[in-house]
Amino acid sequence: MNNFGGHFGGGRPHHHGTSTMRCKYCRTTLTVIPGERAIQCSNCSSVTRVRRADRIPLPVMGPTTAPFQRARGNKRAVLIGITYAAGGMRRGSGGQLRGPINDVKCMRNLLCHRFGFPSECVIMLTDDQRDPFRLPTKDNIRMAMHWLVQGCSYGDSLVFHFSGLGAQVADDDGDEVDGYDEALCPMDAFQRGPILDDEINETIVRPLVPGARLHAVVDACYSATVLDLPFLCRVARNGYWQWEDHRPPSGAWKGTSGGQAVLFSGYSDGKNNFAVMPDAVASLGAMTHSFIKAVECEPRGVTYGRLLTSMRTIMKSGGSGMGYDMQGPIGAPMQHHKVANFSGVQEPNLSSSEMFDIYRKPFVL
């Protein structure tokens, strides 16, 4: 798996209103994508930041959600699973991801059967779909995110789930404590570029009004702070916990409009090996699997702290040997499948738009 480190590349004007730049790592010539701030190299998979002077603006247009149903229940979800079967994202790694589509199916069953999400209010974007508007392209993911929060109001419970690949690119606006933006890779990332955490935060975090809740579960490398939330919870092995302030040094606002956003993601340094199962064996992502199993095993009203501890235990055990076999409709897609840590996640993380006592606040969807 290549390290998706993004760096500035030099650009030069080109004819016909386009421009090109060089990939920092392999020096491949890249075409600057109109309206985008980063490009993913099709040769080495690294992400390169487009310099401000080289960016090509697009006409200002309002967000559209036209291809998606107008269901407006107070429980809505967008679930995205990408194997990259057609895009060759995992160059040199031996094959496509095994697990994201199963992750999405299991997450949908969890939401609908345990938490009462109406099936018509759950949008699934996977790269095995025949409907072009249900493919996890960059445009479709953007529209789905706008649909999720559009018109949100008090009492809304929203879920965003992504299972696939993440990327990292050097920050250029001073809003990252560690100096790097995180990003999610759509199925057409080589053609359109990744979706940066700045855009994700602006789209599904900032519009949250008082009383609206968003829970995100992201199973991807480099996903620890992919929603750009201002607070990250650190939990020691002995159970001691504290919130770290990740508000941008630039002073940019990354919070909500009065609601709450919580992210379950995975810490990864990008150095772990990525598991690729044989073609005949489907698998499940370790991060998603640990979340679903923990929710199933713990009683209703479990605290965030207890849920996070349970997820860690399940991940360390490899998802087996714990007596946590899922039964019924939620676990149906998991039968006879193996768990694969395709994202290289080392342990689950919790971040939030606000600080709270993780061992007192109940997890509620």
Task: Please supply descriptive tags for the structure shown above.
alpha/beta, 24% strand, 365 residues, 7 helices
Description:
Belongs to the peptidase C14B family. The chain has seven helices and 19 strands. The longest helix has 15 residues, at 100-114. The protein has an eight-stranded mixed β-sheet, sandwiched between helices. It has a three-stranded mixed β-sheet with strand order 1-6-5. A three-stranded antiparallel β-sheet has the order 2-3-4, with no helix packed on it. Helix 1 packs parallel to helix 5 and helix 5 crosses helix 6 (304-316). The protein is 19% helix and 24% strand. It has helices spanning 100-114, 138-149, 189-192, 197-204, 286-297, 304-316, 328-331, and strands at residues 7-8, 11-13, 19-22, 29-31, 38-40, 47-49, 75-81, 122-126, 157-163, 166-170, 180-184, 195-196, 213-219, 231-235, 241-245, 260-267, 283-285, 338-340, 347-352. The chain has 365 residues and is an alpha/beta fold.
